[in-house]
Structure formats: structure tokens, C-alpha cells
Write a structure and sequence with these properties.
The protein is built from 14 helices and 6 strands.
């Protein structure tokens, strides 16, 4: 049975990325058939994985990645979120999009707000395409599913860049996650490269260490959030980089937590090596977007010596 994706509230409709999401909701269109095929593959994969994950004594953990601005990825993932929530006796949705210092505002909004637009206005921050997340928030409101603010704040991240992990994680957390002696070299190398590539290869090498530590702080905090809900099926919504198994949130989970975890990525151009980083890779149609690096590189080209 198909469960249609809730439309974004009217106040957010002007910013929604509509065509692809709307087409994906129409079974007879190519986009709709693609989403249906991906949903079938998801269900088939779950049959096998549930032999391990669902048999665990504790509820499952789902790390669900995203390309932040990809409408199809959000649509496919939302169907999977709804499926998991319907099948769980008790669930919690942790979201990278909400900063941890907004948790009290988020809790109050979930109690008092009639719709997602109200929750976003009261507890959401800037920099996110909130219409993509409105269906998840609407689902949480309808089903009474708690939402957990899973990200450190931008201010905390900046402090980590300057002063290290202790600026965002207390001493007990550093010990709990094995960080008292610093970030493991393999994780540090992955995060430095991700920061370098993600910033158009223009970050000075001297700045990479602090920026990589900010990413580690985010991942560790997300892992901590998951750990604080052992009696619930927990879904984490975060970028694909945050959920990767070698250096993201999964890396910081304990062995018994990993045994009941599924890791899903939603990628525009999957590569052969992705199978080692994620349990499931969902290919989604690429979004046509301007090259984010072109504006940064143009001035340098303009001043270059012929």
C-alpha cells in the first residue's frame, strides 16, 4: 500500500522543490515507478537484514543519510521512515537539522504546535531547506514520535575548530568514546580529506585539523544521542558523510550497538567503494545545480598571470 508524502505546509510551499516530489507520488510516471522500484528493493533488503537486526534484544538503530538538496532522496527516505515508524512499538527520530541547544524549544513546539511550519518557526535554524523535512515533522506530530536535536550548534563547532573537542564534548564523553588521547589517525585522515574536498580543495592545510575535529564532534554527539534512547527504535537523519561506517556516527557506536544498526545512503552517483561504507545504497537522480566551487575559483582565475 502506498502512503503518500504529506505536502509541505502552505507557509513553506513557495520554497518546496515540487516537481520531482510530486511526480514521485504519481505511480504512473517514470519518477513514481523509480520510487516504487526502490521501495521494493528496500523491503527485500530488510527481509535479510532483519534476521540480524530485528532479532537483537534491543530495538534497531537506523542511520539514514541524505544529499541535503535532493528532492528524490528525501521522498524515498520519507517512505522508509514512515515504514519503520509504523512497524516500531516505540520510536525516536534524531535530526541533524536541529541543534542541541534548541531541544527545549523543540519539545515545547511538538507539544503546542498544530503543524510543521510552527515547529520549524519555533525551533528550526537557518541554512536548511525545511520543506524537505516538513513531512517528517508532520509524521512526528501525527504519531506522537519524539524528535531529538542531534547536532552541535554552529557556535560549538567554531569553538571546537579553535580549541579542540573539549569545547563541545565534556570529559566524560571524551573518555566514553575513546577520545581522551585524541582522534584516531584513520578517522582524522578521512575527515580531513572530506573537509578538503567539501570546501573546493581551497582550505589551507593548517586549518584542516580543527575543521575535521568539528566534524568528529558532530558525529560523536549524534552517537551519544542514539545511545540515550536504548528502549526505542532510533532513526538518525543526517548527511551521507555523517552516517558512513568508517569515520561517521557508526564508527563511534559500541559493538553491540552496531549489531542492531542499519546504515543507508542516498547517493546521486554511487561508486563501487560505497558498499563498504553503507549497508544499503539508494541511487537517486542527480539534481542540476550550479558548481559551488566556480564562484570561489573565478577570482583566482581572473588574477592569474597569462
Amino acid at each position: 500500500m502506498r502512503h503518500p508524502i504529506p505536502k509541505p505546509p502552505a507557509a513553506l510551499a513557495a520554497r518546496a522543490a515540487p516537481s520531482r516530489i510530486d511526480l514521485a507520488a504519481v505511480p504512473g510516471t517514470p519518477a513514481g515507478r523509480g520510487v516504487a522500484a526502490r521501495r521494493a528493493r528496500w523491503l527485500a533488503g530488510c527481509v535479510g537484514l532483519c534476521l540480524t537486526v530485528c532479532a537483537a534484544a534491543e530495538p534497531a538503530i537506523y542511520l539514514l543519510g541524505e544529499v541535503h538538496d535532493n528532492p528524490e532522496g528525501h521522498a524515498v527516505r520519507f517512505e522508509q521512515i514512515a515504514q519503520i515508524v509504523r512497524g516500531a512499538s516505540q520510536s525516536v527520530i534524531a535530526m541533524e537539522q536541529f541543534d542541541r541547544d534548541k531541544q527545549s524549544l523543540l519539545d515545547a513546539a511538538l507539544r503546542e504546535c498544530p503543524d510543521a511550519a510552527c515547529v520549524i518557526a519555533r525551533a528550526g535554524g537557518t541554512g536548511w531547506d525545511w520543506p524537505f523535512y516538513a513531512p517528517v515533522i508532520e509524521l512526528a506530530l501525527r504519531q506522537g514520535v519524539p524528535l531529538v536535536a542531534a547536532n552541535v550548534s554552529p557556535q560549538d563547532a567554531r569553538q571546537v575548530v579553535r580549541n579542540g573537542l573539549g569545547a563541545a564534548l565534556n570529559g566524560a564523553l571524551l573518555v566514553e568514546f575513546g577520545l581522551a588521547a585524541g582522534v584516531p589517525p584513520a578517522v582524522d585522515a578521512v575527515q580531513r580529506e572530506a573537509v578538503f574536498q567539501g570546501h573546493c580543495r581551497m582550505v589551507p592545510k593548517s586549518a584542516l585539523g580543527g575543521m575535521a575535529q568539528a566534524q568528529v564532534a558532530r558525529d560523536v554527539w549524534m552517537a551519544h544521542v542514539l545511545r540515550t534512547h536504548p528502549q526505542s527504535t532510533v532513526l538518525l537523519l543526517a548527511g551521507n558523510g555523517h552516517v558512513r561506517k568508517d569515520a561517521g556516527v557508526y564508527h563511534w557506536l559500541a559493538p553491540n550497538e552496531r549489531q542492531r544498526t542499519q546504515v543507508h545512503a542516498y547517493l546521486e552517483m554511487p561508486q563501487d567503494g560505497d558498499a563498504a561504507l553503507y549497508d544499503h545504497v539508494h541511487a537517486v537522480a542527480p539534481v542540476l545545480r550550479d558548481d559551488p566551487c566556480s564562484a570561489l575559483l573565478a577570482p583566482a582565475r581572473g588574477t592569474a598571470t597569462p
